[in-house]
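Students often ask what a 'structure token' actually looks like in practice. Rather than answer in the abstract, let us consider Response regulator, a protein of 401 residues. Its sequence is given first.
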Amino acid sequence: MPSTTIANVIIVGGNSQQDQALIDLVNDYFKAVETTQDLKQVCKLMLEPKSKLFVFIGNTLGICLASYYKCLSVIKKSAHCEHKVVTAIPRKYEHEAFQAYQDHVIDDYLVCRPIYEKNRTVQVLQKQLHELKQTKVANYSLAGFLDASTHYSDELIALITEGLAEKHKKNSKLQSISQTTELYLEDAIKQIQQQRIPQLNFDDLLQTLVAPPYLLPVDVSQSIKQKTTELLHYAFELLQNETGLANSSFEPPIQLDNEGIENNHTGILELSETEPGILLVEDDVLSLQLSKTLFAKRSVALDTASNGNSALRKINEKQYSLILMDINLPDSSGVHVVESTIGGDGPNKKTPFIMLSGNKSKSMVDEAIKTGATGYLVKPLKSASIDKLFARFKLSGKTTD
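Now compare that with the structural description of the same chain:
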């Protein structure tokens, strides 16, 4: 069931009249629901950045698990979305499903064929969608599940074991980085209050700041953003006191490897002695602030927008030399903005679009390139990347002291 809206709930399988009752119930209670029988489509949806809830319907729990973990195995080397998985199975497999739920092999299960409790179905899916915003690292253990599933093949058990290991590795790494970063931020604030240069791993900080919200517990994410804002405040205040310039900008000494720019643009802009006009579209306040510091020492006319509607309004009102467009926006997608602009007759029909992606998954970026975008950069933005942009498009943007 194709949709112009990115789906939150993906129903996989379901080919009987009893399954249709479950599908109708989910569509009645939830927006942005997609149904598919194609596991290739499931893999494609997993590669999209937005978090999702997958509901696998099967004649047995084994069929549901095989379908899900095969998809996970196919995409394991690519960045993929945070997601939850719920299985919908006949009642006779409830014991196995409960053990799989306890051992985090699945996030929950539904008894269907027929549906016994409509209220529980809605509650389970609502709970999983809510928890996507407050991810916690699960204690993955297969012991109990294996005892209840001795009839499963060695191949399926190996597939499940590998998939759980990848999940645990991914979640644990970012959790560890975020905890360390939070401690270093507290120390950095104390250092700058004492008018000393803060010692901070900006690589880890930026990785944490641009991480999708569903990869970190809400309290940790909010604490890190609050402390970063506080650190920037003290830094601005210190610079103003030392220089007497009320509008000074602060750029930390970030030393990161350049991700490079992938580009298919064939047009060359004429070098202009006037300030180039650049539109930066970014919905995250902190990412936007950090990006603005990189432009602060260049002679550019920088406009910003935090959502798709605002971006389209500015794009239709003024011609820009370059547009930097975040892939994911709260009210739209960067791909839609690019398509609307290039397909229209406005002043930026031929303006280069550079897509900004918070991870290295290229599925949506590739879609934007096919639509007409020029290239992409992996966030966070870096000085070297911006230097290459200005050189590639022959923008003046002279640096200022």
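One point worth highlighting: The chain has three domains: 9-152, 169-243, 262-392. Ask yourself how you might have guessed this from the sequence alone, and why that guess would often be unreliable.
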